[in-house]
Amino acid sequence: MLSILCLAACLWACGGSEAPVTPGGGGEPGGGPSGGVSEVTPVTSDLTLSLQTDKACYRPGEAVTFTAGGSLPAGARVRYRHGAEVVAEAAATATTWTWTAPATDFTGYLADVYHTREDGTEVVLGTIAVDVSSDWTRFPRYGFVATFDEAKLEPGRIEEEMQFLSRCHINGVQFQDWHNKHHWPLGGTAAHPAETYLDIANREVSAEVIRRYIDTQHALGMKAMFYNLCFGALDDAAADGVKDEWYIFKAPGRTDRDVHDLPDAWKSDIFLLDPANSEWQDYIGRRNDDVYAAFDFDGYQIDQLGDRGDRYDYNGNRVNLPLGYASFIHAMKERHPDKRLVMNAVSGYGASQIAGTGQVDFLYNEMWGGEEGFDDLRTAVMANDQYSNHTLGTVFAAYMNYNVADNKGTFNTPGVLLTDAVMFALGASHLELGDHMLCKEYFPNDNLAMNDALRTAIVRYYDFLTAYQNLLRGADTGAEAEVSLTAATDGVAVNAWPPRLGSVTAYARRVDGKTVIHLLNFRDADCLSWRDVDGTMPEPRQLTNLALVLDHAEKVNRIWVATPDRHAGAPEELAFTQTDGKVEFSLPALKYWTMLVIE
């Protein structure tokens, strides 16, 4: 945990200030033991360019094609940075150009187009991230699709949806509620697949829509994962060969099958089976063979329903569901070793057993009201890191503005951005983007929409998550650092994690020899729940030119900051002074989240 010393104090300003960065005072600038950086290049932004790449992610050495929407001024240049280091730069003379991705695998970059004013100020015109990773599961950015009727075949509709996901660098897509029946997911048979059928809610599904989604995603470098429970059967399952002996029951005596109730207008309730039953595993495995024969899916998103309490098999034995999940995962991997597997841990249920299989590609937590605090997110990330021996990333399925999602409306932008800021700073990602933004566990619910401000901001946040992935997601939770940071500006309190209302919260890690401090703005927050269930989280007042003092005994060579809330994520180097183990500097801006890097 962190240990932050804070000094209460007060300054705020509305967004948009571009005042030049100045040293915090004290000590002599220079390169000696008590010195700092004497000069930095001033940076501002005029975000007139919209940038797009041709794919969501790239293999090392692959060509990256960029397109700029808008006019390029004379003298414009494009540079490619890893962190604050410039790895390549060129003149920007055309609105379409290519760059060869470097050979280093699993690396994030930020490309920014800029020009330099006569006074030396660099003006950022537009930015975009590039993920160079040969395997999408190293840094998973998971999206979804949930509606497959023939209206999706309107010219350009699927392509437009997936282009937005690609712009947000979504590299894997979960297909929710695409199937015919939980125990017989393919519509029809492998020999005679159906072109149309009804899903569990009696909605129309077009097989051509599924195929077109998959083809479009693959062309954009994304992977496609089909969703299904590990243990679900509808009320007609006996006619399809599902045996009574495979079910689980609420009590010994096989009289009360466990069931997940659904609305009367739907096809059926869902009856639950023992995921460890080898005959059921073989049965659903053969059904999945049919799915893979009909559709070019890359893997299986396995679902469960959380802690069911005591449950019993056909013979009256108590069922251990988490061990059953592990057995099920092993059986699915043995059947299709080349396919990817991910399994939901509902409120963390079974997470250690799921991770312990060594056969899932990242860890997926569906978060609920019992774990609604921002600190619960950190607890889940830390647990997953331990369960996987520091090898697997975390994706949160976490539904925003839940209480208002039964009616048409828009998401509350401050709630969404503050939650994403915390998740990303903790090293996780958020399942939220698809053919609409996610607001309920029933993925087809599209009552809430992004307004223009949120749609613009969410692109910036996913650029940031991708460009700085090696600093955000490249270190395990054991790298959490203790720092002492003080605000020297009146009225601003800085506290250690966990978040505190009315304060700026700091969370730090040591990553690749650097100290990375995330500053998260809770000064105006109305609660400490990531859910923002009623959509009431207020927009925070932006802090500008915040004077900070950091206790740091080692010599500091450079300080830089970046935030998705300013200059479209482009980094800014800061002037500073260092005297007697204290580093003083001025933070240009803090809206929701600013990342501070001490080298």
Helices and strands in order:
Layout (H helix, E strand, L loop, with lengths): L42 E3 L4 E4 L9 E7 L7 E6 L2 E7 L4 E5 L6 E10 L5 E11 L9 E4 L11 H11 L4 E4 L20 E3 L5 E3 H13 L3 E7 L2 E2 L25 E2 L9 E3 L5 H17 L4 E5 L17 H15 L4 E7 L4 H6 L6 E4 L7 H14 L6 E4 L11 E2 L2 H13 L3 E3 L16 E2 L2 H16 L1 H4 L11 E4 L6 E3 L7 E8 L2 E8 L21 E9 L7 E4 L9 E2 L2 E4 L2 E9 L2 E6 L1
Parallel strand pairs: 1-8, 9-10, 10-13, 13-17, 17-18, 18-19, 19-20, 20-22, 21-23, 25-26
Antiparallel strand pairs: 2-3, 3-6, 4-5, 4-7, 7-8, 11-12, 14-16, 15-16, 24-28, 26-27, 27-33, 28-32, 29-30, 29-33, 31-32
Helix pairs in contact: 3-4, 7-8
Give a summary of the structure in a few sentences:
The protein is of the alpha/beta class and 599 residues long. Helices cover 18% and strands 28% of the residues.
Task: Give your account of this protein's structure.
- The protein has 599 residues and is of the alpha/beta class.
- It has 9 helices and 33 strands.
- An 8-stranded parallel beta sheet has the order 9-10-13-17-18-19-20-22. Strands 25-26-27-33-29-30 form a 6-stranded mixed beta sheet. It has a 5-stranded mixed beta sheet with strand order 1-8-7-4-5.
- Residues 1-38 have low confidence and may be disordered.
Task: Give the overall silhouette.
Answer: globular
**Share of helical residues:** 10-25%
Number of helices: 9
Number of strands: 33
- Cα gyration radius (Å): 25 Å
Largest sheet: 8 strands, parallel
Strand order of the largest sheet: 9-10-13-17-18-19-20-22
Question: What does the oligomeric state look like here?
Answer: single chain
The structure class reads alpha/beta
Percent strand equals 25-35%
Return the average pLDDT rounded to an integer: 93
> Which spans of ≥5 residues are poorly predicted at pLDDT below 50?
1-38
Distance between the termini: 21 Å
